[in-house]
Amino acid sequence: MGSGIGAAMAVKPDLKIELGKQGVFVTTISDLYNWGRKNSVWPMQFGLACCAIEMIATTMARYDLARFGAEVFRPSPRQADLMIISGTVTKKMAPQVVRLYNQMAEPKYVIAMGACAISGGPFKQGYNVLKGIDRYIPVDVHIPGCPPRPEALIHAFMTLQAKIDEQPLTGSERPRHLDAEAQGEFPIPVQGAHDLEPPVNRLVWPLPAPAVIGTDAENCG
Amino acid sequence: MTATAFKSYRPPIIEADGDGEVLEVAMGPHHPSTHGVFRMDVALDGERVIRLKPVFGYLHRNHEKIAEKGSYLASMPYTDRLDYFCSLTNNWAYALAVEKLAGLEVPERAEYIRVITAELTRIQNHASAIGFLMQEMGASGTPLMYAFREREKILDLFEELTGSRMMCNYMRFGGCRSELPTGWLEKVKVIVAGFPAFIDEIEALLTSNEILMARAQGVGVLTPELAVNAGITGPMLRAAGVNYDIRKVDHYGIYDRFTFRVPLGDHGDIYDRYMIRVLEMRESIGILEQAIRDIPAGPIMDPKSKIRGFRPKVGEAYGRIEAPKGELGFYLISDGTSNPYRYRVRPPSLINLTVLEDMCLGQNVADVVLIFGSVDIVLGEVDR
User: In sequence order, what are the residues at sequence separation of 6 or more whose Cβ sits closer than 8 angstroms to the Cβ of residue B307?
Assistant: First the structure.
């Protein structure tokens, strides 16, 4: 069931069942809309490294991601609404990842699959490895692991579905594409003299909270 | 040595016909067919490829430098992530180099375990390679589904043995990490007994398939001369008709005890590369059957080997194996400290890609996808 305004206007479950018996199906636009979206997420055919093989295994016979309405991996970002960042994002590849994300149609979601995509993982000390793709684009679900098992990707997929289901269509929590003020495209980093510029996108990776100076007793309140 | 001893190699230059404009296309780094982050800058005259420049580095993860910073054992898990289809053979190549450096002896039982895991790795790698090649040919689904169905069976075995499906970190300097789980060999036996039926199934589906023959025969030809000069190894070299298999010529491990043949191709085209992989899987099944039959009881670790404070004496060593994709070698220099002074990987995927332009020149752009698929690369190993 949805939340927010949609949930407030939702029909009581008992009444809904009773009406259903009479052949009358009652729902809210929000629930219907989210139900449609969550059951037809189309991932982009996009793999970066080791995790991509587990992503492929998830779509194959044993794990069968098709059960979730996510059967077809789309070879074009224009036809996809889920980007699974599966593998190590290097600084040479990061601009392409952000560009492809920008080209995807709204509403769009991102799953960061594996330790490298989240934080750089085992290659974090490498000068060429990005310390997490969430520095440039908003990530909806993170999956830890190196690589995560297909079951973990399926769990992330179900988590994303729950998240879509909960999304209100109005109010401050509404999706980006329903917010005229929201920014849909994110700046693409370029190769600078020493590092990617800008080093992070402050819209999605805000500055850490300033350190509080004082005694422990004061801090703990 | 005279100057003529080194004959510099230049790819043949194909000129545009002049009846159309030359179109430069960047295939990748994200392209459905590159199955990884790899770019090919292709110059096209109509549909015909007149130039092709591979662009590497989109997955450069500093593997070699990280290994030089850490201890010898610490880079073992990084080798899993080189060619992430074949983590166990990567383990073996690295362990072999360190064993040469430190003068360690591997017990007999551990050698047999290594052969069993390596040949299982070869089967699942070749099955996946064929599946991906057919995917790129447009057979979307069926062959890859079949290949991954078998691969999952092998991954189950690996998971039971090592605790991980893909990143199987199992081998140690001087042997293997742990004894085989109870009943593991019986499970291997059952699964190996099922493989001939799988290969028959793949062959019935593909080998005399009209579309495969039309698109693969005579396409992407690699001549034996060029293959040898460019340092190509593995199934690509053998598809070109050159009889070279490190299992036969170097006898690393205990490969001299097994009876198996080295299949060879005639034409060096995509079809031969497909066929070689099918035949190698059949030979691997034979090796597995012999290894399971002969495996002795005994220790699995050299008592001289130690995990903590491992400092090989000053020297250098090169360990190499016949990985599923070709010669995988590790070159190590020790300065007597606990981490290698120099650590260098000789990856088959990168070296095999050097002839990509030669194989693609004059072919259609649609064939580039197939030729690339038939090389069977993994980008983790190309860029490292």
Answer: B73, B172
Stated pTM of the model: 0.87
C-alpha–C-alpha distance, residues A57 and A82, integer Å: 17
Give the model confidence (pLDDT) of A89-116 as tens digits.
999 999 999 999 999 988 899 999 999 9
Could you tell me if B66 and B75 are in contact, meaning their C-beta atoms sit under 8 angstroms apart?
yes
DSSP summary character for residue B4? G
Helices (H), chain B: 63-69, 76-80, 87-102, 108-137, 142-162, 184-206, 210-216, 224-229, 235-239, 246-249, 270-294, 348-353, 356-360, 365-375, 379-383
- Block residue for tokens 């493989």: B195
Name the token pair of B311.
């400092």
Residue that has been written with the tokens 């290949």 in this structure: B147
| Strand pairing category for A82-86 and A109-113 | parallel
CA distance A124 to A199: 15
C-alpha B289: how far from its chain's center? 22
- Residue B61: which of A52, A53, A129 has the nearest Cβ? A129
Q: Do B66 and A49 touch (CB under 8 A)?
A: no
Asked casually if ipTM beats, i.e. exceeds, 0.90, the reply is no
Minimum distance, in Å, between the CA of residue B291 and any CA atom of chain A? 29
Average pLDDT for A26-48: 87
Identity of the residue numbered B281: M
| Per-residue pLDDT tens digits for A133-147 | 988 999 999 999 989
Is the pLDDT at B9 greater than 60, yes or no? no
Best mutation target, A51, A89, A128, to test chain B (most B CBs within 10 A): A128
Phi-psi region of B225 (alpha: psi -120 to 50; beta: other; left: phi over 0): alpha
Residue B2, pLDDT score: 40
Alpha-carbon distance of A67 to A61, in angstroms, equals 11
8 Å CB contact of B58 and A129: no
Closest C-alpha among B56, B130, B42, B139 to residue B364: B42
Q: Are strands B171-172 and B175-176 parallel, antiparallel or unpaired?
A: antiparallel
CA distances for B360 relative to A83, B16, B177, B236, B371, angstroms: 32, 15, 44, 15, 7
A contact test, residue of B68, B84, B369 with most A CBs within 10 A: B84
List of residues 6+ apart from B233 with CB closer than 8 A: B244, B246, B322, B326, B327, B348, B351, B352
